[in-house]
Amino acid sequence: MIFLGAQDDSIIVPKGRVALGVEYMGARFSGWQRQLNVDSVQSRIESGLQNILRHKIDVSCAGRTDAGVHATAQVVHFDAPVARPLKAYTRGMNTILPKTVAITWAKAVPEDFHARFSATARRYRYVIYNSALRSGIFNDGVTHVYKRVDEKLMHEAAQAIVGKHDFTTFRASHCQSKTPCRIVHHVNVYRAGKFIVVDIKANAFLHHMVRNIVGSLLDVGSGEQAVDYLSQLLLLKDRAKASTTAKPNGLYLVEVDYDARFELPKTDAGPLFLPER
Fold it and tell me: Whole-prediction pTM value?
């Protein structure tokens, strides 16, 4: 367990570029990105920072999450026009933000740091509550699947997408990425009691890529498709041939990698109710 409460509140963060670690439950937000007439995580953070800095602030994030998607390790950066104590960005922001959003760390970073473009890899966890009956506690943070699914078959099938591939089959139809090619570092599927976790890390992800992969893996786990299903889907390069997109409830951004020279704090991958592995 990594304890981040040890940051020295007496530190003064100078004027310049600042990075923040952000944790949030996305169930009540219309996604990360600021939009007119809807509530977003970005707008809440920018509003809080403007309250503290008394200037209009624009933040950039490591990965824009959709409506209903969560994060335990989102990273953002912004340019502070004035110096502030570290505790203004941590304790101060957490006083202002809604209870479903929290700052987990703050740090001054070099001017060449960019939350999105400096990231070298991103990691997501998708959490499935596999039980005949739904939970009364975890509904906003998991996807309920009532049919028994075999996580071992899902894990075996998932190994077909490790490495560099064209992920056209697993991208949303309106995805704006210039290339469908991505490098998947690992996919691990395991069970922890009633929870099944799909843990996937890649250099970057296409829009809805994780949820589309999980939807297809669930069809393997339920016995509706063979173990070679994902390898066949990769070859087809056709989104219409793949399974239904999994719901957003169970998806968490849990880690973003950066060059060691930035010395960013590390957080537990989470979510909190799962054992670390």
Answer: 0.93
